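Q: Please design a sequence for this.
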């Protein structure tokens, strides 16, 4: 079989191989770039105080009682009042009266913080503390 026959039959030397090699090289370069970007993203997340938290599909509403509200107020005064004000009407942080966010969202913000605006309290406050804070926030009247 001559080289012309091999080329016509799609065999070695047909001219299709260089295109396949280029496509394979491009795919491998893309995969390497994606892997590198994913690694950098994970590294940045590990260096940040804003770590993802495992989320449950269903989170029951925060229970409220006079004891939880009282304990939540004490935590608020020690951890939050310097930005949100002692009466939660806002200072550096926003007014928290009549907050309409879900309990889950509030817990996420307390845990993760808001980059450039609010620090993460994950290391300082546990889940029970966040329940107390949420109960206190829910007890605040709509107007100051």
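A: Design:
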């Amino acid at each position: 079989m001559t080289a012309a026959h091999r080329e016509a039959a799609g065999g070695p030397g047909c001219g299709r191989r260089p295109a396949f090699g280029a496509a394979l090289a491009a795919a491998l370069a893309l995969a390497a770039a994606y892997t590198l970007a994913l690694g950098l993203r994970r590294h940045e997340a590990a260096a940040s105080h804003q770590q993802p938290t495992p989320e449950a599909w269903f989170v029951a509403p925060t229970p409220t009682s006079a004891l939880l509200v009282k304990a939540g107020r004490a935590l608020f005064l020690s951890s939050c009042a310097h930005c949100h004000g002692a009466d939660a009407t806002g200072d550096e942080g926003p007014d928290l009266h009549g907050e309409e966010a879900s309990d889950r969202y509030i817990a996420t913000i307390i845990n993760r913080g808001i980059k450039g605006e609010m620090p993460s309290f994950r290391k300082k406050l546990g889940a029970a503390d966040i329940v107390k804070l949420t109960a206190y926030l829910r007890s605040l009247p709509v107007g100051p």
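Q: Thanks. Anything notable?
A: The mean pLDDT is 79. Helices lie at 3-9, 16-47, 66-79, 81-84, 103-112, 127-139.
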